[in-house]
Amino acid sequence: MKKKILTVFATITLCVSFILGACSKETSTNEGNEFRYAMSGLYKPFNFKENDGKLVGFDVEIGEALAKKMGMKPVPVTNPWETLIQGLKAKKYDVILGSMAITEDRLKAVNFTNPYYRSGAQIFVAKKNNSISSVEDLKGKKIGVVKASTFKTLVEKHTDQITEYDSDITALMDLEPGRVDAVITDQMVGLRMIKEGKSNIKEAGKPLNLEEMGIAIRKDDKEMVKKVNKALEEIIKDGTYEKISKKWFGKNILGEEEKTK
After folding, report:
1. Are residues 175 and 244 in the same domain?
2. Tens digit of pLDDT for each residue in 100-132?
3. Which residue segment(s) compose the domain that 145 sits in?
4. Which among 79, 137, 179, 207 could bridge 120 via Cys, Cβ 3.0 to 4.6 Å?
5. Rounded to an integer, what distance in angstroms lies between the CA atom of residue 48 and that of residue 63?
6. Which residues does residue 217 pair with via DSSP β-bridges, in sequence order?
7. Is the pTM of the predicted complex or chain greater than 0.90?
8. Distance separating alpha carbons of residues 55 and 94, to the nearest angstrom
């Protein structure tokens, strides 16, 4: 009787182990087929959360289109902007697809794909503010920028009165009440806010530069760079990219020349 009980127990244990092993294998396969791409979620209209908490925006939809081309499941995730690269290195996600400018400093830490859009840094001020019309006018002024951004590097040469924010939108909202004199952010971000009529702000002067945004990938994941670049090329050629871009901005923000390449 004792031997029979042991035999039954061994059989049950074997079955449970087999089931758990199968589940584990299935989970691993599913995870391997996910395209996890990170962003701050605070950069409207590129990536932001709607009232119901859903993550939306240009970056989100580009990620979805890339995942489809690669035959993967799109999984957009958020992470604080200033620790996005650390999270990538820790393998919390596969790539950063969150409007990150390609810079020499960042290239020391990560690889980038080909650019997926181009835009410039722009000074924004309150509508009633006529004292700032160029970067030279920023001297001694209170300037708002996002933490760990290239915009901060731009403004450090002109003033030491810098207020850092988690979100560009929050910074822009502080212009009208006078908490900051100017904000430097992506031109598209400020123009979208003006279009929506959510704040009495305006552009001051011309864009300060032209930056190329890329998708950041771990240095050791060269295969992912190839896959994403191939998918990016495909969505540009088949018109998917332009459709998404025109939905959010009314134009192709990568540049018309890319369509003929």
Report:
1. no
2. 999 999 999 999 999 999 999 999 999 999 999
3. 121-204
4. 207
5. 14
6. 95, 111
7. no
8. 18
